[in-house]
Predict the 3D structure of the following.
Amino acid sequence: MVEKILVVDDEQAIRDVLKTFLEKAGYPVIVAANGMEAIRQAESENPHLIILDARMPDLDGVETCLRLRSQPRTRSIPIILATGFKQVLLEALDAGVDDFVMKPVRLAELLLRIKGMLKVRHVEDGIERAMAYTQELRRTLPSRQFEREGSTALAMA
């Protein structure tokens, strides 16, 4: 599965560089020029990861992150914040940013962070699927049968 990335930055040149770089690395990329557009894109496109600029007019990266985290459809999308201002990092981490890169962005470092975040997302998705499957089994199987088979399976493991 190829993971789609949303790049959010108010500077066209930065969006263009990141889009070109990430597409050459094999990722489909969508872009947004501001926080409100990023929220709309995240809700409609369901990206696997967001690279979010910290400083944008109107709705900055921290507020954008808070709004993304408040919506069920977007709350679990990993977010990497790109910033040139260290003083925003604590506020951004409190808002729910998963990772950050300092500007000017070193593309090789960004790519490593993206790969790491996507690995974590795959693990989390697998855990969520396993939990949903377990809940469905509990719901559909008679409770005593599940308890008996579950304890047998645990004993065998």
